[in-house]
Amino acid sequence: MTTFIWIAAVVVLIGIYLSWTAGRLDRLHARIDAARAALDAQLLRRASVAQEIGTSGVLDPAASIVLYQAAHAARQAPEDGREVAESELTQALRATLGEREQVDAVGAAPGGEQTLAELTAAVRRVPMARRFHNDAVRAARAVRRHRLVRYFRLAGHAPFPLAFEMDDEPPAVLGAPHTAA
């Protein structure tokens, strides 16, 4: 009779562990979804402000076209091409707003200071949001790699989480204080 009790206790403990792990995995997937929504919001904010600067007429025509097209492509990119489009927007921001004179020209325009403040905040928040998302993905992947999670299919039909990799280095000039000309 004691053998039966020990076997039942072990089965109950394994069941509790599996239930706890499934709950943890579910919370990690919810955290990934929330972090992805926050990342999408920051990327959209950055693209919107970049598009606004591109259509403002403050930059030279070539820079305006480059910035507008990159921002538009980032906003309209399908999910599988989003990382490339966002990296291209980052490169366009560095190319068009990489010098102090260009940033000062935007700041001197009507409403330019506010636009620059929005863009500066957006380009600073994108790397943080991406880091939070990728940390959540890393944690979920670590749990999903466990043998028991795979054997008992505790992840259900949830897709394997993917990190969001992009070039998110902001223009150096946006980090420094600027003065309007």
UniProtKB/TrEMBL annotation:
Q: Where are the transmembrane segments?
A: 6-23
Q: Which InterPro entries match?
A: LemA-like_dom_sf
Q: Which UniProt keywords apply?
A: Membrane, Transmembrane, Transmembrane helix
Name of protein:
LemA family protein
In the record, what lineage is assigned to the organism producing the protein? Bacteria, Bacillati, Actinomycetota, Actinomycetes, Kitasatosporales
